[in-house]
Write a structure and sequence with these properties.
By secondary structure, the chain is mainly α. Helix content is 62%, strand content 5%. The mean pLDDT is 86.
Length: 162
């Protein structure tokens, strides 16, 4: 029985290494934004555009920082997006930024889907609710998710620079 158990453990380690390598490959394009999010923690990243020429005739709309827009575009096309992100929120009873931050800190390689769900909520949801991207930067959600992804990868792989 111990020989068989050794095989299962060895197979499990190989499986985890493959999963971590996959996570690293999928998240590397987004991790390059981590230093920017770290240096802009708690800041607003949008301003309202309101044309003086057309005052009263047009709606004002948010104009986002170019780095945030690049991140959102890259994240939206990444395989890390989960269109069923709402399920993550209901299953884990997430209703505030504090809930998100607490859950992000608890994530490991087996609960990577939670990180994907939270990231997807802000990236994909921001397409229809214009304040979500600014909220994700101001409340440090993008930063926390990316940092946790990097920590998980480095714990099972080797440290790397972004």
């Amino acid at each position: 029985m111990s020989v068989r158990w050794g095989f299962i453990v060895e197979q499990s380690v190989e499986y985890r290494q493959k999963v971590i390598a996959d996570y690293k490959e999928k998240s590397l394009p987004l991790l390059k934004y981590l230093p920017w999010f770290e240096s802009n923690q708690g800041r607003g990243v949008s301003s309202m555009y309101d044309s003086d020429e057309m005052a009263g005739q047009t709606l004002s709309f948010p104009v986002y920082n170019s780095t945030v827009m690049s991140f959102v575009r890259e994240a939206a096309k990444s395989p890390l997006m989960n269109k069923n992100y709402r399920y993550i929120y209901t299953r884990h009873h997430i209703s505030s930024h504090e809930d998100e931050a607490k859950l992000i800190k608890q994530c490991d390689w087996k609960t990577w889907d939670i990180l994907m769900g939270i990231l997807s909520y802000y990236v994909l949801g921001g397409r229809t609710k214009g304040t979500l991207w600014n909220e994700a930067v101001r409340s440090d959600i993008f930063y926390l998710v990316l940092r946790r992804m990097k920590e998980i990868i480095e714990f099972y792989d080797k440290p790397f620079e972004v």
